[in-house]
Design brief:
By secondary structure, the protein is mostly helical. The chain folds into 3 domains: about 80 residues, no CATH class; about 130 residues, no CATH class; about 160 residues, no CATH class. Helix 6 packs across helix 9. It is elongated. The N terminus is likely disordered.
Length: about 400
Amino acid sequence: MKPQSNDKIRFDIPYKKLLSQNAQELLAAIELSQAADDSLWKELAATLLDDMKKISKLDYAAVQNKSRTQKRDDDMKYEEEFELYKLISQMADEYPELDALLESHDLTYEKALRMAKAWKNEFEGLLEKLNVHAESLVAVCTDIINRISDEPENLDLQRIYCMLITDLGLLFPYDERTEEQDIRNYLKQSTNTEKLLKAIMKQKMMRSRLEKLLCAAKIKNNILKDSSDESAAIYRLSLQHGLLRKDEENEIYMDNITALLQQINTNPYLCEVKPYLIAYVLAHRSGYMLSRENYQPNLESALRYTEYNIYQNNGKNYKSYQRSIELYTTLRRCYWNDVNVDIAFSDHCFANLSNLSDWFYEHFEPDAAVPMKLIYKAAMLKAPMFPMLPVDTDVDSEKLEEELFSVINNWI
C-alpha cells in the first residue's frame, strides 16, 4: 500500500531523517504496510534488498577511512544503503509468525478470531449506545471530537476515542482483509487502546495530586534530619554536570544543598517528587545556590508552569535545556529505589510543568528515561496510517488528525 502524500510518518530511528525523499517514501510504504499486517511490506522489502548492495560492516568501515572530501558523497550513499538494509532485516526479524504470536498470547486461532470480532462488536455497540454518527470514519471522528469537548469525563467516549485512533484497519477497513490480518490487528490495537486509556486515567489522577502538592508546598517544618551523605552525593552530581567549578570547594553551595534537602525531606509530599524539585532548583536557581548564604528557594514556583522558548536557538538555550534534562534523568536514576519517592509522580511534574519535554521530543527520539506528555504518548500509540480516508474525500486528513489530538487537552 502506497501511503498518501499527506501521511505523517514519525520515524523511530534518527538516521531516517537524513534519508533521501525516495528512500523515505519507500520506508513509509514498508512501515505502513507492516503496521497493517499486509504482506505487501515483504514484497517491498524484497524488492529493495534485490536492488541494493549488501554492504557489510567491514565495507562500511572502509568508507570511513577515505579523506573527508572523497568520502562525503559516498558516506551518504553507503550509510543510507547500509542503514536501510539493517532496518529491513530488523523488521523481518521482529515480525512474528502467526503461530508464535498466538502462543505468546495463549490463544488458539479460533479464539483469537472470536476476540477480534468481539472487539469490533464492542466498538459498534458503544457507538450505538451513545448515538454517535457512524455513517463514515469522518462522521465518527467529528462527532467524537465534539462530544468529548462537552463530556470529557465520559468513560465510554474515552474508550471510543482510544479504540478509534489506535485502529489499524479492523474497525474501519480500507481494503479487503484476511482473518490473519484481523487477528494481528486486534492483538496490537487492543493492547495500545488499553495503554492509552491507562495513560489518560493516570494523567487525571496525577493532575489531582499536583493540586494537593501545591498546597503542601506552603507547609514549613522546623524538624531537622541528617542529610549529610545525601548532600555530599548531590554536590558530586553537581560537579559531574558542570554546575560548579571542580578546582575549588564551595561551602555556600554545600550549605544550600543541605538546606534544600531539609526543606524537602521534612515534608512527605515534597519528598515524593524530590528528583524533580532538586533538578529544578539546581538548574534554575544555580546562581543563588552558588553565592547567596542561607538561600532557601520558593518551591511553590517549581510547581507552577514554566514556558521556555523551544523554537529558537540562541546558541545557549538549547544546550541549557539538554543539561536540565540530563540532570533530571540522573537524579531520577539516583532516587529510583527510594521508598519515599514516587518516580511516576516526579516524572509527571517534569513533563507537565514546563515545555522542556516538548523540546526534547521535537528534537530527539523517544527515550524511556525522559518523561513525556500525554499527547506524545498518544502519538506513539496512534495507528501509523490513521486516519486513512478514501481517496475521493474532500476532508483534509492532516487537519482532522490535529483536531483529534486537540481532544487530549481535555484530559491534561
